[in-house]
Write a structure and sequence with these properties.
Radius of gyration: 19 Å
Distance between the termini: 51 Å
Shape: elongated
CATH architecture: Orthogonal Bundle
CATH topology: Ribbon-helix-helix fold
CATH superfamily: protein bp1543
Low-confidence stretches: none
Number of domains: 1
Oligomer: single chain
Helix content: 40-55%
Order of helices and strands: EEHHH
Strand order of the largest sheet: 1-2
Length: about 90
């Protein structure tokens, strides 16, 4: 698994900036942008705006990706499972 860090240029507003992230995070950001029908730059700009003055952009992007994939997993884990999901047989009638 290649986990090299790639530096990419993105446009946020009217300025060009460089962001360094691991390849896996770039791939995840592209997937999320596609799901939301946004360009990668538009998604990065949204994360940049939402982070305010907290941390750097690379950290904000990593946290955004983590939360995007963690939230559905946590929601699924908190849902009660149907008997067939637990490997149990439904009660006979």
């Amino acid at each position: 698994m290649n986990s090299g860090i790639a530096k990419r240029s993105v446009i946020i507003g009217h300025r060009k900036t460089s962001v360094s992230l691991e390849d896996q995070f770039w791939s995840a950001l592209k997937e999320i942008a596609t799901e939301r029908r946004l360009t990668l730059s538009a998604l990065v700009a949204t994360v940049d705006q939402d982070r305010g003055d907290l941390g750097n952009l690379s950290s904000a992007l990593r946290t955004f990706v983590l939360e995007r994939y963690r939230t559905p997993i946590a929601a699924a884990a908190s849902q009660p499972q149907a008997p067939s999901d637990r490997g149990e047989r439904p009660a006979a009638r």
